[in-house]
Amino acid sequence: MSILETKTRTRNGTPPTGPAGADGSRTAPHPLRSELRRGFAPWAGLAVAATLSITMAGKAPQWQGSWGETQTMLHLVSALLGGPLAAAAGCWHGGRERRRRTDELRASAARGPLAQFLTASLPVAAWIAVAYAVVAVGVGAATWPYASASRPLLSPALADAAFLVAMTVLGHVVGRLVAWWPAAPALAVCGYLVLGVPTYATSGFRHLSPASAPETDSVLPVWWQPLAESVWVGGLAAAAVLAYAASRKYIALLPLTAAAVAAVLIGQTGDRMWRDHPLAHQQVCDTSVRPQICVNALYPAMLPEVGAALSGLTDRLEGVENLPVRFEDRAGEPRPNEAQLPMLTPTGQSMVRSRLTDPEQYAWEAASALTSGDRCAARILDKRASQVDDAVTEWLAPNRIRNEIERQHLRSALESGDDKMQAGIRADRAARARLASMDTDERRAWLSRYFATADSCDPKRVPAL
Hints:
This protein is mainly α. The chain is built from 20 helices and eight strands. It has a four-stranded mixed β-sheet with strand order 3-4-5-6. Strands 1-2 form a two-stranded antiparallel sheet. Strands 7-8 form a two-stranded antiparallel sheet.
């Protein structure tokens, strides 16, 4: 009778009620079933679920609204927090017999060392994998109402679950071998460092740590990347288990060889394990306005939101000539006759849950992109041209925060007697006032002349105000 079967007896020494045998007698439930239903394993799963859930909830603005960002954040949290916690749980559970002083009884059980090890370790690993699955479903449900493009990927999620299982089993081996009571928390700290430190490296071998995955939703893993990651960490765990518990230790060389091959493949391939997302190079556009408004095809739900934020700007530009054809939202510099739309990513800054966090600031940045003030040093350094650029930007998209900052600067200049700063602020205000005081036709003609020089670095070509 194994140790787990022995411990299922009740206090009065009678066996527990179980399924009837062939002779009508009652038999004890399988130890694996007992480990799964009660004891430490469910609590380990609950701890992992709580850790992942609380961390993901705290970072919800950074991922909720994009499938790519959701899976990337869950992957990183699972690797950096879930992995060390799973290893610590396995380590603590692995030292259970030693703490209870029943390790000699376990050694005398009928089952072999490998069967005993799997019976004790797999329930904890299974509960932790289930905890990850529950959290993954939860964050997917939280993202669903806001994500408008792409789809969740199954293979990276399976690789994350395999990683947590492998870390649990590795921790269990450490718990069996190390007779030191703080081994579990020490292993968690060491695991965090081992997983986190490689993310600061530049070599392709940094990807041996699952935490080093790209933090962007504009790339996708190649089909074999999750498989290679699973073979790498799973091979190490299997090798450790076989070397510890198998009767023929040399069998551990098989998974160890597989892990080494996967490690070389991961290290040599490096960043090429991810490819550009097909949607990242596409746009969806509103062609009913000038300039046209285009957003990246990864975020099509943002087009109405961006269009509403820029509606005041496009209304003021109605009838103006020499404008860029469109606002574009692709990586890299805008093409000729295009203007760069303010960045929507990373999620959680300008955009949260498919909504702009500050539409007024976003419109001001879009207006600034229409001028050359942030692209041409000669124009910035010329006081008159820079003043005209600022006046156009402020007229197209007034910004209360910038106006308040200007008032604070003016008060500071008045208090300190800085005549030069006072004169500069008053000149900027006068330029904006002159532009605003023009009648519609005059202003439209002046803006048409202005935008004809928007791409020029010659400040003398900028029309006067």
